[in-house]
Amino acid sequence: MIELVGLTKAYRARVAVDDLTVTIEPGRVTGFLGPNGSGKTTTLRCVLGLTRPTSGTATVLGRPYRSLRHPMRRVGALIDPAARHPARTAHAHLRALAQTNGLPVDRVDEMIDLVGLESVAHERVGSFSLGMGQRLGIAAALLGDPDVLLLDEPVNGLDPEGIRWVRELLRDLADEGRTVLVSSHLMSEMEDTADHLVVLGRGRLLADMPMADLLDQHAAVRVRSPQGPLLAAALRRLGAVVELELDGALRVEGLGLDQVGDVAFAAGVRLHELTRITESLEAAYLELTGDAVEYRASGL
Amino acid sequence: MRGLLRSEWTKLWSVRFGAWCTAVYVLVVAALGWLAAAGTQTSPEPDLAVETALTGFGFGQLVLVVLGVLAITSEFGTRNALVTFTAVPRRTRLLVAKTAVVAAWVALLSAVLAVLCAVAAARLTAVPGGVSLGDPAVLRVLGLQVGAAILITVLAVAVGTVVRSSAGAVGLGTALVFFAPLLVALAPDWAARSAKAMPALRVGRDTFLAESTSWQVGTAVTAAWAVGLWLLGVALLERRDI
């Protein structure tokens, strides 16, 4: 479990994290989303004691991270796949980490096998690609068999096979009752992986809700009827937002599937189609963070 | 702490600079020591003969500045520090382990090299009564040399912790122990006196290319700089963001 209470980090020119209070529960994969510069990485760094918050607290398993004696046995983290000395071999990099926390060196070989780096275990990591760096970082995070995992963009740079592997790994870890917090910009990936979402925008909490709820909020109903105008009028009377689609169907927002069916029955309207349209997480996310985007490309 | 020491030992030998600095240090100290001993035909006292053979330590300690600095700046320069301080959030403990490992390695190397230099002096320089390694005066010179090497290494680790950038810290470290004492010694009287407060490099009982101080004063000054800067390094390391 990770608890943030009033977490604030202000740099000279800007506030990176602004009064963030949220609890990350165990047993599920929590997706950590937000536009570039919204404070995700700063939040993770505060949790790991690398950055000192301006105010507020961050605790892991009920304790401040910096008071943990062997933190790798409790918390595994990947915050920068490039955080490695280029001249060191993958094996030496992981061995030095294992030794700091009194972990057996056998664990290093196990993790290297797990992430699929056996063939390059004794090569210098300076030559590693971004994806190989991610695998090394994941190996480091899992070395101590931790109860809590924090992963910042772990699938960035991974091949499709690797992305799928990470997805299944996170699922399994959460199912074992561990706390898994993972950030990503790949919405389709997040949609398949996360159970719960925490969304930041400009350092503030925009949403903290189950994935299903967020998708429901942005769901719509598609209804086709030979008596379209009559049905639209009946729906609008109940406060629904109704739009006419190109093929003559109606797109209804603000009412559920059952309600739309009931309205049609009550109005004596025949229906030829009644479908629930779920928006992709991407669309829901863009709508949610639209006002909180800090860095936006301008049109050409 | 044992795990931390082991980890730092692994780190020192899994990068290139550990082996390079060791090789260059051995080469400089041994080669210059042998040349100095061979070039000195006679000496009135055994400790003076040994001191001459230790000349290589003068330049050799500049390599220790690089070794000590890189031991810590290699973490920050490569962002490996993020991983290191995530694994070891108790930062002071990490710096203690890192300093101890590098200083212990330098102590071992320097002790072996100092004895080799003394052997060279015994074989190559004629001294009335000969040079005995068990001579208390000789042992004191050798001990002072090993002590000076350790202090310079600790000072370098401290400078690296404060400055964080490899280039900046190597520059500042060499300026502090070599160029500043040298330049100030060439300056007018009042500046030369202030040179005695600089952590100059030492060869045996005397300073190396700097204003001369007694070994008691010189060692105390260098120790004060090393400990002072190391404590400053700890304070900054605990306070600053990684």
Automatic annotation (TrEMBL), chain A:
UniProt keyword Lipoprotein present: no
One GO MF term: ATP binding
Signal peptide segment: none
PROSITE patterns: ABC_TRANSPORTER_2 (PS50893)
Organism of derivation: Blastococcus jejuensis
Domain ABC transporter per the UniProt entry, residue ranges: 2-227
Pfam family, one: ABC_tran
Protein name: ABC transporter ATP-binding protein
From TrEMBL, chain B:
Keyword Cytoplasm among record annotations: no
Transmembrane feature ranges: 12-37, 57-78, 99-122, 142-163, 170-188, 215-237
Organism: Blastococcus jejuensis
Metal-binding found in the keyword field: no
Pfam family, one: ABC2_membrane_4
UniProt keywords, alphabetically: Membrane, Transmembrane, Transmembrane helix
Protein name: ABC transporter permease
